[in-house]
Write a structure and sequence with these properties.
With 316 residues, the chain is of the alpha+beta class. The chain contains seven helices and 22 strands. The chain starts with a helix and ends with a strand. About 17% of the residues have low confidence.
Length: 316
């Protein structure tokens, strides 16, 4: 039996059967680290609470409080916590610098990593997630639906347990990623969402337009930009200019504006030779093209030359 925070929660709430209870007690006795973790969990569990519909988490204060308790055994006050049977349950998990919140109907789990290092999380289906600092995960506690759904904010590495009957879907602010069993890393920020696949096959798509998607295999990466709703993909270990744009369309758009987009999409530095060139306009569609092919299309359409410098690309 795999002992996790949820089983320990049931144990503290006296909701385990006798067999599970014995398994947990043996787990506690088997390793001093297990014992220390359980005691920290039990300490927060036994803290008296008052009724509240919302709670604020101050993990730094919680850490200082535990240190004071161990060092001087002095009384102190901590943030108000709610018991498992109350409106919301707060549990300190694996470190006092990260926490799990179970919602009032016990159907939702929220994990936020406030540590300085990655935090390992194991889901009910056996999938493993390495959550980066500042990252947040949210998922159903039962995890027993037709689809395994999880919400992500920030960065995480996923090692998904195979289940051909139940797809695993990760939703970020900008994208959705659909898999059956594979390993990959997702990184989300305000500008774009990145994914790199290490094994298996992944479908990576725009959340609001699932037809805007790309299929990735081992060694491939993709990036979605919310500003332009643009999806790019490339082979791993190649430079950013080797990203291929799935679809990008312009209608009578000034070249200066297009180059600003390309600079952002490909993390490059395209400059225009003079003000007259900046005012040139073009109507075009780029599909499955990398930066070099895009620039060649532009230069051919507008009768321009491409000059590559050390720190920039000049269109003249």
């Amino acid at each position: 039996m795999k002992i996790n925070t949820e089983l320990l929660t049931d144990y503290l709430n006296e909701q385990c059967d006798e067999e599970t209870k014995k398994e947990i007690e043996n787990w506690i006795k088997s390793d001093i680290r297990n014992k220390n973790y359980f005691e920290e969990l039990q300490f927060y569990w036994n803290t008296k609470i008052s009724d509240s519909k919302q709670i604020e988490v101050d993990t730094r204060k919680g850490l200082l409080s535990i240190q004071k308790k161990r060092a001087a055994k002095r009384q102190f006050r901590i943030k108000k916590l709610l018991r498992y049977a109350a409106v919301i349950t707060l549990l300190i998990a694996t470190s006092v610098s990260s926490y799990i919140v179970v919602s009032s109907n016990f159907n939702r789990v929220l994990i936020e990593n406030q540590m300085l290092s990655d935090k390992q999380v194991e889901l009910p289906d056996g999938s493993k997630i390495l959550l980066a600092q500042g990252g947040t995960l949210s998922y159903s506690k039962s995890f027993d639906g037709k689809e395994r759904l999880i919400d992500l904010s920030g960065e995480a590495f996923f090692d998904i347990a195979k289940d051909k009957t139940r797809p695993f879907i990760i939703t970020t602010k900008q994208t959705k990623t659909k898999v059956l069993g594979t390993s990959f890393r997702i990184t989300e920020n305000d500008l774009y969402t990145d994914i790199t696949v290490q094994s298996g096959v992944v479908e990576f798509m725009e959340s609001l337009n699932i037809s805007n998607k790309v299929r990735l295999v081992k060694g491939e990466s993709a990036r979605f930009f919310e500003k332009n709703n643009v999806l790019l993909s490339k082979t791993e270990h190649t430079s950013n200019d080797k990203f291929q744009i799935k679809h990008l369309e312009y209608k009578n758009q000034k070249l200066e504006s297009i180059c600003k987009d390309l600079n952002e999409l490909f993390n490059t530095n395209i400059k225009l030779g003079n003000n007259q060139i900046k005012e040139l306009s073009i109507t075009t569609t780029f599909e499955d093209q990398d930066l070099e092919n895009i620039l060649q299309s532009i230069s051919f359409s507008l009768d321009l030359d491409i000059e590559k410098k050390n720190d920039h690309i000049l269109l003249k």
